[in-house]
Amino acid sequence: MSDAAAKPLPFHFQFAAGAVAGVSEILCMYPLDVAKTRLMLQVSKSGGEQYKSIFDVFRRIIKEEGPSRLYRGILPPIMVEAPKRAIKFAANDTYGPMYKKLFNQEKLTQPLAIMTGVTAGITEALIVATPELVKIRLQAKENAGRYSGTMDCVRKIYAEEGIKAFANGLEATIWRHALWNGGYFGSIFGIKKMLPKAETKKGELALNFVAGAIGGTIGTTLNTPPDVVKTRIQNYNPAKGPAPYTTFLAGARMIAREEGVRALYKGYVPKVLRLGPGGGILLVVYDQVTTYMRKNFM
Q1: How many other β-carbons are positioned within 10 Å of the β-carbon of residue 4?
Q2: CA-to-CA distance for 65 and 38, rounded, in angstroms?
Q3: Predicted pLDDT at 5
Q4: How is this protein positioned relative to the membrane (predicted)?
Q5: Sign of the CA dihedral running 257, 262, 267, 268
Q6: Is 4's pLDDT higher than 70?
Q7: Burial class (CB in 10 A: 0-12, 13-18, 19+), 244
């Protein structure tokens, strides 16, 4: 790595690079997120016509609701994607040196990389929980006629459920992001150590994509259960009565008991298809943008 590439970036450059990486990923992969949400919201015991697979989700959405529905609810994540992904990388780059100093380590180790990722994930979750709730409400098929758009959704949630409703699922969101970031950044550290060192820029890009894709897959495997619980908590309609659960562990126990443990991995296929390659896209774009910034602005 060149001296230019080794220069530490100021926070505002890290923030901007993370934003570009995040928006690039979401524009490429968003329909998979819609499919993931539809599958996660299916309750196994409820009967009715269920989606059978990711392809069935896409086929039926296009046939029954129109192709544009695959991008329904994209505005909240687009609005939050810039700070979300920026915080992911900027916090990771900030917490790493902090933990090295705290534990008197000259270099980042894998345990410190995991701790750094978990802390960055918690920071990220505090920012994204409310936009996630709005996105879930817009993506759910049962809400197709309930909300006309993002601002209508926000207004109706506030009017019908109160300001506290926007914090629904926050605890499960923290679990989701802490596990994903810990798995993602921790595994990237180990994978890069195992893979042969890249000797060209193309080789470095390929290495980053492979490491990011594997890291995204590991993070997804770890965080799908809290994602299922979070999704159901955030879409719950209080008109049905008191929520059956409001936290991750309580929700995971109930879902496992009533629908089986496999239900905690509903939506895993579209989620891993998005966040595996998506993790690679994130890492590659972030690396390219930060390299450009170092060369041209520092």
Answers
A1: 11
A2: 13
A3: 44
A4: Multi-pass membrane protein
A5: positive
A6: no
A7: middle
pLDDT in tens, 208-235: 888 888 998 999 999 999 999 999 999 9
d(CA 92, CA 125): 14
- Round to whole Å and give the CA distance between 109 and 224: 26
At 48, the pLDDT band (50, 70, 90 cuts) reads: low
For 93-146, what is each residue's pLDDT tens digit? Answer: 889 889 999 999 988 899 999 999 999 899 889 989 999 999 999 999 999 889
Terminal C-alpha separation, the chain? 16
Phi and psi angles of residue 125, each rounded to the nearest 5 degrees, phi first: -60, -35
Question: What pLDDT does residue 138 have?
Answer: 96
pLDDT at position 139 is 95
Residue with tokens 């392809």: 55
Q: Which helix (H) or strand (E) holds 165?
A: none
Which residue, among 274, 234, 295, has the nearest Cα to 22 in the 3D structure?
A: 274
Handedness of CA 256, 257, 262, 267 (dihedral sign): negative
Say how far apart CA 136 and CA 143 lie, in whole Å: 10
- What residues contact residue 182 under an 8 Å CB cut-off, 6+ apart? 114, 115, 117, 118, 121, 219, 222
Chain mean pLDDT for the chain: 89
Cα separation of 253 and 271, whole Å?
A: 22
> What is the biggest distance separating any 2 CA atoms in the chain, rounded to whole angstroms?
61
Backbone angles phi, psi at 121, to 5 degrees: -65, -40
Going from the N-terminus, what domains does the chain have, and what CATH number goes with each?
3-297 (1.50.40.10)
- Which residues, 6 or more positions from 136, have their beta carbon under 8 angstroms from its beta carbon? 37, 73, 231, 234, 235
- With tokens 């230019």, the residue in question is 4
Amino acid at 151: M
- The pLDDT value recorded for residue 250 is 98
